[in-house]
Hints:
- The structure is a single chain.
- The protein is an alpha+beta fold.
- The protein is 65% helix and 12% strand.
- The chain has 2 domains: 4-203, no CATH class; 289-443, Heat Shock Protein 90 (2-Layer Sandwich).
- Strands 1, 2, 3, 4, 5, 6 and 7 form a 7-stranded mixed β-sheet that branches.
- Helix 3 packs antiparallel against helix 4 (111-132).
Amino acid sequence: MKELCHLSKDYQKAIDQLKANLWTSIGGNLVLALVTFWMLKDDIASTTLWAWLLSHVILAILRVHALYRLIPAEDPSEEWKKRKIIYTFSVTLIGLLWGIISLLAVLYAPVTEQLVVAFIVTGLTAGAVATLTPVLSGFLGYFLAAVIPVAASFFMSSSEVLSAVFPIVLLYVFVVYSSGIKLNKNIVSTIELTKKLQQMNDVMLLEKERAERANKAKSIFLSSMSHEFRTPLNAILGFTQLLKLDPLESQQEENLDQIHTAGEHLLELINGVLDVSKVESGDMDLNIEELSIQSCVSQCVDMVSPLAVKREIVITILEPQVDWRVSADLKSIQQVLINLLSNAIKYNKEAGKIEVRCQQVADKWLRISVIDTGIGIAKENQEKVFEAFQRLGKEAGKIEGTGIGLYFAKQQIERMDGKLGFDSVEGQGSTFWCELPLITKILT
């Protein structure tokens, strides 16, 4: 039988449970001892009763001393075994004192007082299930030392009443014994499960720390390499612009245009990687302030208009007469809106439409929606939309992009305590929206 106190330091909580119940148990035990002393003072010799009562006091002190020295150890030593034996011995003797008084009551007291003593003993032993089971040997010693003399006295009694009660006493002994064993097993199982969960949690925390360190190292590497790439790339772009100033043949000019376009695309990729590394490392500073979202939307629409005109896409700002004031970082909001508008243009159909709508949701939130009539997003791909470096669908390969714009936008919005989401139907278009803390609404 596995016993709690032979396991490890993880069972200190169970020992603490014993300590928590200690004074209640000792107090109840001494009060009932005084009641028993008073009840039997005319039936049993006073010397015997005083010795019995004094023994209770001495054993209570021994029990306190033994329990406070009972500290679980990883490898049970001889000292640990001695302490456990002393504790078990002290509570066993307390149980034996109650067994002895029940025998003395049968020998010298009337039947009524014998039954009262028996009820006191059964009540104490039933309470021991809750107070002593964390150390199984202590519970068994106390319980058996108390109830065996009671059962024996009932069995040997000449009283018909006590003889009739004897089978009930046996049933009580069986029920309480079984309950104590079961409760001890439950305590052991619970503590072992807690230990395993703690170990799993420790492993998860360790893995989380490793992942965070690896992610930080990756971000530092990406940032460093991006800076290193950007310097020579800017030189290449600069030289292509200088070469365009010279007289060139049409083929040479076309080649330079291709070099310049490819260089700008590569620079866009590098800048995107830099932005991601800044977000992941927490190096992006925010200046949260009250700003006009209508003005910000208008500026962003103006910035992407050349791309829209090239594809004959019409961009409409709904309710331009309302000036919404939100709490946000201007630069971050501009980056997010330009990203959403650029995607709405790139993934739209020729001569399509884009609507930008601002509306209040809940009590203190403003939702900015960018609605397009484009190709939409397949249902099976929608859960991957905000993952970094994701290019979704067959059309993605035909459209320039890094696959990190929406990931970056989501990180920025969430750092401003906002939300970014979308609704999309494949073949019909998409609505990407962000929600920001609303300050006020002004009609212009």
